[in-house]
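Input structure tokens:
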């Protein structure tokens, strides 16, 4: 087996936060809460949103009343992935090599525009968790067409990967992507690791 590749963005002051027009996600911040010299131990306070950094979106992120994070089984987040390159996505390549992989890894870095037909062919695959490198846009007047389609289909989307590590992702491999065990929320930061499988 290959070494694990960490596709998680470092969580620090340089972490980009989503903002569009007047809206912005909660800022990421850390503050020292206690100190060894004062309390005898050190604790830090974290402030962040559920979609901060590398994160997973539950269906409730885009569909009112949709499934929340706790409906996702850890088994859905660990296993082999089916990899589609940016070139395959752009030309609408059908997923004919799919062999039942648990996760779908879409390499749309930095951005790929795909057709509605391509989206529907991907939604026909049973993979419950999608991993998105870059941004996959669907030909639509709705800029969130992909997100809404995934949410309506009960799928979970991992996005905002560390771009500096994407070139190392093997075309055949396995992934581990475990979010925090939060309940009643639309997502969570996630640690995402991938590694190649021996040929």
């Amino acid at each position: 087996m290959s070494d694990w590749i960490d596709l998680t963005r470092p969580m620090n002051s340089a972490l980009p936060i989503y903002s569009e027009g007047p809206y912005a996600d909660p800022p990421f911040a850390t503050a020292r809460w206690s100190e060894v010299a004062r309390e005898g131990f050190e604790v830090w306070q974290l402030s962040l949103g559920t979609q901060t950094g590398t994160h997973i979106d539950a269906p409730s992120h885009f569909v009112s009343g949709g499934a929340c994070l706790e409906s996702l089984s850890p088994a859905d987040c660990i296993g082999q992935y089916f990899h589609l390159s940016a070139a395959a996505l752009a030309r609408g390549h059908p997923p004919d090599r799919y062999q039942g992989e648990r996760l779908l890894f879409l390499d749309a870095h930095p951005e790929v525009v795909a057709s509605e037909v391509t989206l529907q062919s991907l939604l026909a695959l049973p993979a419950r968790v999608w991993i998105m490198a870059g941004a996959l846009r669907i030909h639509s007047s709705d800029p969130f067409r992909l997100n809404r389609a995934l949410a309506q289909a009960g799928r979970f989307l991992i996005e905002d990967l560390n771009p500096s590590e994407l070139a190392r992702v093997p075309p055949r491999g396995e992934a581990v992507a475990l979010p925090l065990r939060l309940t009643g929320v639309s997502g969570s930061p996630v640690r995402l690791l991938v590694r190649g499988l021996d040929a």
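The CA atoms of residues 78 and 143 lie 29 Å apart. The chain is about 15% helix and 35% strand.
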